[in-house]
Inverse folding.
């Protein structure tokens, strides 16, 4: 009886030992299995985090490059063309780096590609600087040329103005005399207003090789002592247009044929009554003022 109890106890201890061993083995297996799962999870998380960081760096590098270049956009067509070329190059490099990140390429390879991206930006920044310097020089040349053109234009205008003035006909001398006229038509010079019946205006047009040859119109303005322009009997005062476009009244006009040489002419003005005072005679040729004279009657 005593031996049976002892044998039962031994069996119980063995069973309990086996159960304990199985439990410990199970726990050990579970521990290492869990450890491996945790390790795999951590590795996966590190890979994901690394990809995220690399993608964030890629976006930051591209943005930095674009920000440096974008500030020069719109300066001129040549600059915009250069920037479009730079954008295309940077975009191609971005896609290449993004692909390498997705393929989980070695970090050193990515570093090399990021360095290439930075070099691309540096290259185009130096090209932008070169283009700006060339444009500055070109603008200076254009400004100088514009100044020269303006000066030449101004000089040409001045020269044309001088030529225009020089080509106008000028009256070298005007001699105005007053006469009484006998029944036989004989003239007798007088300075008495009540005896005066005719005014004679002798004028000389200077020689001028620059003037246009051919017919020219000479206008005479005879102003009485009151300042009124005399008109032929029974006619209203006529008008001509001056070089400035003004309408100017005149007493009489004649046409002369000018060949460049000095020309002398005479016109007469007859009327029944001449008042006491000073008469003023003005001469215009082709609308330009050419000379004047005065005649005093007592």
């Amino acid at each position: 009886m005593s031996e049976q109890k002892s044998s039962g106890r031994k069996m119980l201890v063995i069973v309990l030992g086996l159960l304990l061993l199985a439990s410990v083995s199970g726990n050990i297996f579970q521990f290492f299995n869990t450890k491996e799962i945790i390790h795999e999870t951590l590795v996966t998380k590190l890979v994901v985090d690394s990809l995220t960081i690399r993608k964030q760096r890629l976006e930051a590098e591209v943005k930095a490059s674009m920000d440096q270049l974008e500030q020069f956009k719109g300066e001129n067509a040549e600059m915009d063309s250069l920037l479009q070329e730079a954008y295309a190059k940077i975009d191609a490099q971005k896609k290449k780096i993004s692909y390498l990140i997705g393929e989980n390429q070695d970090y050193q390879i990515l570093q090399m590609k990021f360095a290439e991206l930075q070099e691309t930006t540096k290259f185009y920044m130096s090209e932008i600087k070169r283009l700006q310097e060339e444009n500055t020089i070109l603008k200076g040349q254009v400004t100088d040329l514009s100044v020269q053109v303006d000066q030449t234009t101004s000089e040409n205008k001045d020269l044309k103005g001088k030529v225009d003035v020089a080509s106008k006909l000028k009256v070298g001398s005007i001699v105005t005399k007053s006469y009484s006229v006998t029944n036989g038509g004989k003239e007798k010079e007088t300075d008495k207003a009540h005896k005066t019946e005719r005014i004679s205006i002798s004028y000389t047009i200077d020689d001028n090789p620059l003037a246009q040859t051919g017919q020219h119109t000479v206008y005479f303005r005879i102003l009485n002592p009151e300042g009124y322009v005399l008109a032929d009997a029974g006619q209203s005062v006529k008008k001509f247009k001056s070089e400035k476009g003004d309408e100017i009244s005149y007493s009489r006009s004649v046409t002369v044929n000018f060949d460049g040489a000095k020309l002398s002419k005479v016109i007469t003005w007859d009327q029944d009554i001449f008042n006491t005072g000073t008469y003023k005679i003005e001469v215009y040729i082709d609308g330009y003022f050419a000379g004047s004279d005065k005649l005093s009657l007592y």
